[in-house]
Structure formats: structure tokens, C-alpha cells
Write a structure and sequence with these properties.
single chain; 58% helix; CCAAT-binding_factor; 0% strand; CEBPZ/Mak21-like; CCAAT-binding factor domain-containing protein; ARM-type_fold
Length: 566
């Protein structure tokens, strides 16, 4: 009887680390570092074979299975511990997944996908969801997302895939891109949580992702800007702060941010609060000498909104104040045609006379910038500024220093001495019923104007100008009697002569009036709305006499100094 011989069992193939396409080392922590040929275990020569998505995936799966077998064989104890941790509590599970990813990022796509799935399943549990989201943020930023470029799909690779290593890396890149997009979707979902404090956390994560990595920056910026319209003011203000921080880190994103905010501002049925925060973000942008185009674009946006707000009813004055402040800042850096701004000139003056004092000052600041280049609006501008000095509310105004600075610059710019004297007279009149700090500031302002203005001491009149206009009106033709005094009887109520009625003409139409009539003012008129024709040459600075004898020594000293200068 012949004994049956046992057939030898086929021995299992013995795999070595040399068969891996990529090295596994603690020094290699990012998958895109494998693009360097020195990190490859056995670099292959390029072939003419075309690698589509299916072939790339097949090559990576073979590489992943080989890595799992080698890892299970060489580190069996660690492998058993990690496998046990993956099926225990959520805290140990997270630690195990992160450990596997950090051990070999290129072979850890399955663990990364498990983390994303774990976040999706925990979305209803706010605390766990935020913890997993923070871990994923760290993993993507510090391991998977390149620092200086965006991710590509396999069919969008800039370099042709010609080797197995390149094919595996292309599949890794596409998978990371898809998982990162899923992670952003989940962050967007958390950002709509009913609790405001929960919504702030994912917005902060989105800002950090946007500021540190370029992947999907357009979508991230869109999600952040949209939160400016959050119904909760805490979330909206936090978003505004994050956007300001983003511009400080990356000034090159100004144009992209402006385009995104413009899309938000002109959206249908947008909340007024969203427009408010969006405008605050635009006006906080810092300009440089190279931002001429950006400043021009912002000016167009501001005036488009100005036209939109003018049509609507019950628009808060704070919107006009923000718009005017933004235009005033941007016009210094823009090379914009003033004809476009002149179209809105009447609207700007309407704001000066119809809104609160803060908004009026903003409008006057813009008008001053325009008046520096277009002198034809000087009289109208100075009339509006002179009228604001008569309003009682500006004394307690928070922007008092801004308003006085505007008056100071306007007086230095003006070339008409009678108008400057009218402003000096009005300022001194205000000193008579204000406190000491205000008086000292006004006296310093007047002294600086006298020092810096080309007219200098001629702006101060301490002797009344003789009134010779009435004598000129009664001359009989003898030119030698110009300097003789002429006396006239006062017309009483009993006289039969009819009263001469002089029609009143509003100061708005002063350009159409006879200039000689205005120049022939015979006395100082405190109620005149046009400072150029209020008769400031026919009055003395009597107020300085009172201030010179003021009880406060500083006021008396400042007033005496102005006397000494004259």
C-alpha cells in the first residue's frame, strides 16, 4: 500500500517594506512631502501609460493593503491596542484615529474619512461635534492641506501622471479635497445652530482655515461674509472682527473681500443690520498708495448705496454717516473723476441740513475735500459750515475736536478775509457762554489761524471800520466831499413818507444777486446766513475785551496774547 504524500501548502508571500511605494518615517508628517523623490522607497521610471481615476485608486488600494499587513506584522501589540480603542469610547476612538493618521498620513485616508463620518453622526450633540471639528481642523491644517497651493482632482493635475507613485498621490489629493469639502459642509451646518455661542465656534474655525491655507478660500470667504447677516448681533460683530483680523494677516485679499461684501450688500431682502456690519467692514479697510483701483471701486459702491438709501423710507442716519466716512477716507487714495461726485452734490448738502450733527460733520468733511479741488462750491460750503456753528447741539457733540479741526482747515483754505473775520466773530461769541476748556481751545484755534494764514494780523479788527457808504449814497456829484460827514434825520412813524420795503432774498440765491448790493453792508448782522456778506468789517472783536478780563487766568492770558499779536 502506497502511502499518500501530502501536497505542500503554498507559502504565503512574504512582503517587505521595500515593496511600499512610500517610506514610513516619523520625519515625514505631510503627505505632499512624498512628492520629493528622496522620500520614495523605490522610484519608478516614467511610462507612457495613462492613469485615470480607476487605475489611480487601484494602485492606492494595493499600497494601503500592503501597509496594513506590514504594520499588523511588525507592531502587533500597538495594532491590537489601536484596534481595541477604535471600538471603545469616543475619546479613545478619536485618539486612536489621530494616532493612525499621524503615523503615516498617506496611508491614513480611511481614518480621516472615519473622522469626517464621526463628525456627521455627532452633529446633534453639540459638545462632541465641536470637539471633533477642532481635531479635524488641526489635522487638515497641519497634515493634509498644502501651505502654498490648492488641491487638484485627478483630471486637473498640472503635471502629467506618469508613475505609480504619482498616480497614488493624485488619488490621495483628490480624496483629501473631497473630504475637506465634506468637512466644510458640516461646519456650515453647525454654523446654523440655534444657539449663538455655538455658531461662533465654526465661524472662527472657518477664519483660521482661510487665513492658513488657500484651499477653497472663495467658498470659505463666502460663508464667513454671509454670517455678517446673522440675526444675533454677537455673531455678526464677531464675524466683523474675524474679517478685520483676516485683512491684517492677508492684505492681498482686499479685492476679493470687497467683491464678496458687494454681493451681500445688494442682495434682495437683506437685513439692515447686515448692511450695517458690511459697511463697517468696508470702511475699516486700510489703504496704501497702490490701492487706487480699490478706492475707486469702494467709492462707486458707496454712492450706489447712497442712491439706494435715498429712495427708501425711514433709513437710519447711521448709514449715511458710515457711507460719508467711507467716501471721505477713500477719496484721498482714489483717482476718481470728481464729475461723478458732483452729481450727488445736492444730496450731500441735503444731508448736512437734514440729518443729525454727526452725519452732518461727515458730509461737511467730504464737501471740504471736494471744495479743495472745485472752488465753485466754496460759498455754498462755507454757508453750510457757518450755519452749523449756530446750532446749539454741537457744543456737547462727541466729535467736537473733529468739527473744530474742520473749521480750522476751512479757515486756512479760505482766501476771503471778510468771511474769515465772520467765523472768528462767531467763534468768540460762542466763547461767552461756554466752559473754560472750550474757550481755551477756540482761542488757540484763532491764534493758529492768525499765525498761519497769509492775511495774518489783518484778520483781527480792534477798531470799527468807518461807515462811508451812506455818505456816498447822498453825494451831489462833488468828489471833494467824499470825506465829509453827512447827517440825516431819522424817519419817525408820524412822517407821511411811505416805508421802503426791501425784498428778502434767501442766501441760497446769492449767486444771482447783485454783488454790489451785498458788498455795501452798513453794519454787522448776526443773523446773516452768508458769512461773506454779514458785515464783519463793520464790527470790533468786543468779545476779546470780556475774555481778557476773564476770571480764569488761562483764558485771560490767551486773550491777552491775541491782543499782543495784533
Amino acid at each position: 500500500m502506497v502511502a499518500r504524500m501530502k501536497k505542500p501548502r503554498p507559502q504565503a508571500a512574504v512582503h517587505t517594506k521595500a515593496e511600499l511605494l512610500f517610506k514610513v518615517s516619523k520625519d515625514i508628517s505631510k503627505w505632499y512631502s512624498f512628492e520629493n523623490p528622496t522620500t520614495l522607497t523605490s522610484p519608478l521610471k516614467a511610462t507612457n501609460e495613462k492613469y485615470d481615476k480607476e487605475k489611480c485608486e487601484k494602485i492606492y488600494r494595493e499600497e494601503y493593503d500592503l501597509y496594513q499587513k506590514l504594520y499588523q506584522k511588525d507592531q502587533s501589540s500597538d495594532y491590537q491596542w489601536l484596534q481595541t480603542s477604535l471600538s471603545t469610547t469616543s475619546k479613545d476612538r478619536l485618539a486612536a484615529l489621530v494616532t493612525l493618521i499621524r503615523r503615516s498620513p498617506i496611508h491614513g485616508l480611511q481614518e480621516l474619512e472615519n473622522l469626517v463620518k464621526l463628525l456627521r453622526s455627532s452633529i446633534q450633540c453639540r459638545r462632541d461635534a465641536l470637539k471633533i471639528a477642532e481635531i479635524l481642523e488641526d489635522v487638515f491644517v497641519n497634515i493634509y492641506l498644502p501651505e502654498n497651493r490648492r488641491l487638484f482632482f485627478i483630471n486637473q493635475q498640472p503635471n502629467q501622471v506618469t508613475t505609480k507613485q504619482a498616480a497614488a498621490l493624485a488619488f490621495v489629493e483628490e480624496t483629501v479635497k473631497q473630504l475637506y469639502s465634506n468637512f466644510i459642509d458640516l461646519l456650515q451646518q453647525i454654523a446654523h445652530d440655534p444657539i449663538a455661542q455655538i455658531r461662533i465656534r465654526p465661524i472662527s474655525m472657518l477664519e483660521r482655515l482661510l487665513s492658513q491655507r488657500p484651499e477653497q478660500e472663495k467658498r470659505l470667504l463666502e460663508l464667513i461674509v454671509d454670517k455678517l447677516g446673522d440675526p444675533d448681533s454677537t455673531v455678526a460683530s464677531k464675524t466683523l472682527h474675524l474679517l478685520n483680523q483676516l485683512l491684517e494677516k492677508h492684505p492681498g485679499m482686499k479685492h476679493v473681500l470687497v467683491n464678496e461684501i458687494e454681493r451681500l450688500l445688494f442682495r434682495q431682502n437683506i437685513r439692515p443690520s447686515a448692511q450695517h456690519y458690511a459697511l463697517c467692514c468696508l470702511t475699516a479697510i486700510m489703504f496704501t498708495s497702490q490701492d487706487n483701483d480699490l478706492a475707486n471701486k469702494l467709492i462707486k459702491i458707496y454712492f450706489a448705496l447712497f442712491r439706494l438709501f435715498s429712495i427708501k423710507e425711514n433709513v437710519s442716519s447711521k448709514f449715511f454717516a458710515i457711507l460719508l466716512g467711507g467716501v471721505t477716507r477713500a477719496i484721498s487714495f482714489a483717482k476718481v473723476d470728481l464729475e461723478n461726485i458732483m452729481e450727488h452734490l445736492n444730496d450731500l448738502f441735503r444731508i448736512v441740513h437734514s440729518t443729525n450733527f454727526k452725519t452732518s460733520v461727515r458730509a461737511l468733511q467730504l464737501l471740504f475735500r471736494i471744495a479743495e479741488q472745485r472752488t465753485e462750491i466754496d460759498e455754498r460750503y462755507f454757508n453750510a459750515l457757518y450755519k452749523k456753528l449756530s446750532e446749539p447741539e454741537w457744543k456737547n457733540f462727541k466729535m467736537l475736536s473733529t468739527f473744530l479741526n474742520l473749521i480750522f482747515k476751512s479757515m486756512l483754505k479760505d482766501t476771503m478775509e471778510p468771511r474769515i473775520r465772520a467765523f472768528i466773530k462767531r467763534l468768540l461769541q460762542l466763547c461767552l457762554f461756554n466752559d473754560v476748556p472750550f474757550i481755551c481751545g477756540i482761542l488757540l484755534l484763532i491764534s493758529e489761524v492768525v499765525k498761519r494764514h497769509p492775511s495774518g494780523q489783518r484778520l483781527l479788527l480792534f477798531s470799527q471800520k468807518p461807515n462811508i457808504l451812506s455818505s456816498k449814497g447822498d453825494k451831489t456829484g462833488d468828489d471833494d466831499d467824499d470825506e465829509e460827514e453827512h447827517f440825516h434825520d431819522v424817519v419817525t412813524e408820524d412822517d407821511d413818507q411811505p416805508l421802503q420795503i426791501v425784498p428778502e432774498v434767501g442766501s441760497w440765491d446769492h449767486k444771482n444777486l447783485n454783488k454790489k448790493t451785498h458788498n455795501h453792508a452798513t453794519h454787522y448782522d448776526i443773523h446773516k446766513r452768508n458769512p461773506l456778506y454779514c458785515g464783519s468789517d463793520y464790527t470790533c472783536l468786543h468779545e476779546l475785551m470780556f475774555l481778557k478780563n476773564h476770571a480764569h487766568p488761562t483764558v485771560a492770558l490767551f486773550a491777552q496774547t491775541i491782543f499782543d499779536v495784533s
